[in-house]
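User: Can you predict the 3D structure for this chain?
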Amino acid sequence: MKTIFAPIFLFFSYFATILSTVVLCFGLYAGSSPAWAETAAKSGNLKTVFLIVMENKSWSDIKGNPDAPYLNTTLLPQSSYTEQYKGPKGGSLHPSEPNYIWLEAGDTLGITDNADPSKNHQTTTGHLVTLLQKADVSWKSYQEDISGTSCPLANQGKYAVRHNPMVYFNDVTGTNDPESFYCIEHVRPLTELERDLKGNTAARYNFITPNLCNDMHDKCPPFKNKIRQGDEWLKTWIPRIQESAAYKNSGVIFIVWDEADLTPSCKNADCPIGMIVLSPYGKGGGYSNTIAYDHSSTLKTIQEIFAVTPLLGAAADSTTIDLRGISSGHFRSHKELGDPLDLARRGLEVEVVYR
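Assistant: Here is the predicted structure, written as structure tokens:
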């Protein structure tokens, strides 16, 4: 019996060794740690992005500031964040509007001021939401204080059109048409975000702008404190997003400031600004690094998540680093993915590798 079964035992032992090696290698490729089964259960593709843009604060104004208790005692301990994220051009790009346009197109497109779309509207179709639309990736821009009955091409109350980059593109607005159906369909009041989250109808890309009171731009009642007002807004909205199926099932929240402000601690208004990342798959735990990022990094990361090309503007520069360094792993680059258009045709999504 020993003579008969010994070769069989050796065969199955050898086969089991090969199988475990294959599984381990696959687990590492798919993102597992040596405890591959546990980690594999967590891994998956990022499917939904929430990008929240706050206003005019250096990171040193936020981190450790007692006027931002929610940010510092709740968000940062559970998030990943950067220490050396700046606006474009080394943080020297001002005022606000060119920074928002950069997040959408990877460039200022010649815009140097905060003028309305009536002056600064763009004919190019080379910008993020148009690439998303062509790839059948749903998107919305949620803007606090707009009515939702027209395309918001001018300031309304505490809504600042300069903080809504999508409406600067003719292919979104029908060339500044306040009755553009496409614009009205995609640029919605912030109040609808909660409904969409609860109804599990949120878009895959969600660009979110608080009003001038809540984005840390203006002093407003009841706090008369820019940072505290924004902190309270985040305290209200971040849990709503985190409680949604869209976030729990492969979502990510990016919270970024548009630019630094001119203050005694930032005399050239070119200091690092905040970038906070929250995701069920993120490193979290208060992880931070000192890699040099900017708005091109954010745009590149979003394009990699949704596999839309070509990389736009400075996002295509070889020196632009995506935000994989503050995630739990990395978004696979276009070279790793192969042809994104071919992947889209085959119904595949961007794979996120978790290490």
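The chain has 15 helices and ten strands. The CA atoms of residues 116 and 234 lie 27 Å apart.
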